[in-house]
Amino acid sequence: MAVLSGTVRGGGRTVRDARVTVLDLSGDIVGTARTDENGRYAVSGLPDGEYTVMVRGYSMVTDQVTVTGFADHHPRLGFDEYAQVR
Length: 86
Prior knowledge:
This protein is mainly beta.
């Protein structure tokens, strides 16, 4: 099983208590997490594969990721004009 983890950022800062939702290719929710006081999150127990990651804090962003074993993913919430996900 794989682990997806990272740090959510927005406006140059980490975002506490953002909701991270991981969807499989069918659009089914396969994992969720909330960021800690440092903006970090981890979703474990994922089969290797491709996923859509939705992050909701003050605004929402989505991104496509491929997970094999262990993957780092660092979303940026759209506090600026355009949302960026890394």
